[in-house]
């Protein structure tokens, strides 16, 4: 009897797409939900199902409207995530943007960060927020992960910025390379951030 050889694939060998949930009032939560999925997938633990209901809570202003709400959500769900096999950890920091980006880069996909930002600094176009949305009323934040920006290009992982509200003027994407404007936009929010990592990658 001949047994076929089986080649195990690593998570990074497959193309895995996570949609970016667009929201004007829950950017902190939406960018966090995206990152948690990506980190869990890189660790080989992501399995869509009942977990999606838990993560979707972050897309609401009640659970994902501010950095404080996201921090509380994570603390309240730490046990639930662990029971599902998610060895995710969270820390709140207030450090320069460059240090956070370097930390995420070194994590090789097992780390991510959510940074509250000033929407106008990141999207300086006139009425970028939309005709019916005052730019100053956008509770904005972005996520930063290491992933393939364009899987079809067969390029390696790079820093990717996840923007749940990239504006409506067509000047930005919801997934793109980290822009130099991020540093000032983040600084305007006191350099606060939530960092996420898979246990063992702290």
Topology:
Layout (H helix, E strand, L loop, with lengths): L26 H16 L7 H7 L4 H4 L2 H17 L4 E7 L2 H10 L4 E6 L2 H4 L18 E7 L10 E5 L12 E3 L4 H6 L4 E7 L4
Task: Name the CATH architecture.
Answer: Alpha-Beta Complex
Any idea how many domains? 1
Shape: globular
Q: Helical amount among residues, as a percent range?
A: 25-40%
What is the mean predicted local confidence, pLDDT? Answer: 87
How do the helices and strands follow one another from N- to C-terminus?
Answer: HHHHEHEHEEEHE
Please tell me how large the radius of gyration is.
17 Å
The span between the termini is 47 Å
Report low-confidence residues grouped into runs of 5 or more.
Answer: none
Spatial strand order of the main sheet: 1-6-2-3-4-5
CATH topology assignment: Cathepsin B, Chain A
- What's the total number of strands? 6
Largest sheet: 6 strands, antiparallel
CATH class: Alpha Beta
Number of helices: 7
| Oligomeric organization of the protein chains | single chain
Q: Can you tell me about this structure?
A:
The chain has helices spanning 27-42, 50-56, 61-64, 67-83, 97-106, 119-122, 182-187, and strands at residues 88-94, 111-116, 141-147, 158-162, 175-177, 192-198. Helices cover 32% and strands 17% of the residues. The longest helix has 17 residues, at 67-83. The protein has 7 helices and 6 strands.
Tags for this model:
32% helix; 202 residues; globular; alpha+beta; six-stranded antiparallel beta sheet; Cathepsin B, Chain A; 7 helices
Short description:
This protein has 7 helices and 6 strands.
């Amino acid at each position: 009897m001949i047994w076929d050889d089986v080649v195990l694939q690593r998570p990074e060998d497959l193309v895995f797409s996570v949609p970016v949930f667009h929201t004007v009032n829950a950017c902190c939560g939406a960018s966090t939900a995206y990152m948690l999925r990506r980190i869990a997938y890189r660790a080989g633990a992501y399995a869509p199902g009942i977990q999606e209901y838990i993560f979707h809570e972050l897309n609401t202003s009640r659970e994902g409207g501010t950095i404080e709400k996201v921090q509380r959500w994570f603390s309240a769900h730490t046990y639930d995530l662990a029971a599902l096999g998610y060895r995710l950890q969270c820390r709140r920091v207030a450090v320069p943007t460059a240090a956070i980006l370097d930390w995420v880069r070194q994590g090789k996909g097992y780390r991510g960060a959510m940074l509250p930002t000033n929407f106008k600094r990141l999207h300086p176009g006139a009425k970028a927020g939309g005709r019916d949305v005052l730019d100053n009323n956008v509770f904005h934040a972005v996520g930063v992960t290491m992933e393939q920006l364009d899987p079809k290009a067969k390029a390696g992982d790079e820093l990717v910025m996840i923007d749940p509200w990239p504006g409506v003027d067509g000047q930005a994407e919801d997934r793109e390379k980290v822009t130099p404007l991020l540093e000032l936009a983040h600084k305007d929010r006191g350099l606060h951030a939530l960092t996420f990592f898979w246990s063992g990658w702290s």
